[in-house]
Amino acid sequence: MVSLKxxxxxxxxxxxxxxxxxxxxxxxxxxxxxxxxxxxxLLKGKILATLFFEPxxxxxxxxxxxxxxxxxxxxxMGSVESSSVAKGETLTDTVRTVSQYADVIVIRHPRIGxxxxxxxxxxxxxxxxxxGAGQHPTQAILDVYTIRKELGSLRDLTVSxxxxxxxxxxxxxLVELLSLFGARLYLVSPVQLRMPEAITSNLxxxxxxxxxxxxxxxAASASDLLYMTRIQKERFEDLSEYERLKGSFIINEAFLxxxxxxxxxxxxxxxxxxxxQEVDSYPGAAYFRQVKNGIFVRxxxxxxxxxxx
Length: 309
Hints:
The chain is α/β, with parallel strands linked by helices. It contains 11 helices and 9 strands. The strands form 2 sheets. Strands 7-6-5-8-9 form a 5-stranded parallel β-sheet. A 4-stranded parallel β-sheet has the order 2-1-3-4.
């Protein structure tokens, strides 16, 4: 029997295939349940604390919505400027303090390794909602949940991950989960934004077929799924380099006509110019369905971590 009770969620490589299957099953159950009623009482009396040191729309709101749909409460640090962090309080002391108020903590922070530091300091479970250019494991789980819904299976897929693969924490976590199901991977990026070598080497050591290319059409023509990411302006010290690389890969109506192949299209959002709005009506454009799936997956994680599922 799979149990996540009391566990931290920090990295895409921490999960077994059996655990992912269990999470997806619980999430599917919550999706069905919410079609019958607006909310549950499973986590009544439990409190989620959200500590976001970087901007967020989807991750923060979906975690808060998930907790409230389960009947629990939410407290938030608010902006960094309005907290004791502005007075020089360390991350460790902040987390130790918040642990006294909540049953589970969700944290986003600009520094790689910050989620691990928070988990070591906390007396309650910690969920990594993004540690700089490191990992974003809950996004990866909702991504595979979406892929399974859109394509019917996670097995024998060819997936193209496109854009900023160097700093893209969503893809760093996602490839770990896709590797559990034996996916073939095209890594499409400018040379300057390639997937870190440590990650590609690890994938290849597992027997995963990995192709690195700058040719989006070549990759898309062989793929069941395109996972687009934005070029992240906030990760560049040299903004002229960002200006040169932004817009490297764009999916628009003309591209899809040339492709002449049905593919699913995902994006962790926000998008800038890498998917034109004209693509939104394309049947395979799943990124807003992907957003909604985040609630079900995060409900599952919160319930399982708190021993209620």
